[in-house]
Design brief:
This protein is an alpha+beta fold. The protein contains three helices and six strands. It has a single domain, classed as YaeB-like fold (2-Layer Sandwich), CATH 3.30.2310. Helices cover about 35% and strands about 25% of the residues. The chain starts with 5 loop residues before the first strand and ends in a 6-residue tail after the last helix.
């Protein structure tokens, strides 16, 4: 069942959607609702990051503090974190509407990160 989590499996990183304990993924659902062109822009950045391990353009990928990063296919934002074994976990997503990231979005990412780590450690994430 692990396949449902994978966004892109690249040379450098495997990028996965975060799913909560109920099987819900904010980021995946957000992605599914995007138009074709917006999906294409996001998929390009996921592929670039997975294949090369780098996105040098700060307008497209940026560190947001607290080990949270933003993948930024304008106007969308996908928050993520790096995890052991060459994984990037995409926690949540939103449409940018102001210059600063909403505090609640970063809090969601941090909460998802802690939940992911806890469930991985307990062996209960990929059930």
């Amino acid at each position: 069942m692990k396949e449902k989590f994978i966004v892109h499996e690249g040379e450098e990183f495997t990028i996965e959607w975060y799913f909560d304990s109920r099987g819900k993924s904010n980021a995946f659902e957000y992605f599914q609702d995007l138009t074709f062109n917006r999906k294409k822009k996001a998929a390009y950045l996921f592929e670039l990051l997975g294949e090369t391990g780098k996105v040098f353009n700060k307008e497209k990928f940026r560190y947001e503090g607290d080990q949270i990063y933003a993948i930024k296919p304008s106007p969308d934002r996908f928050l993520c974190f790096f995890f052991d074994g060459g994984k990037i976990i995409v926690t949540n997503a939103y449409e940018k509407k102001s210059a600063k990231m909403p505090v609640k979005e970063k809090q969601k990412a941090l909460k998802a990160k802690e939940d992911y780590k806890k469930r991985i450690k307990a062996g209960k994430y990929y059930d």
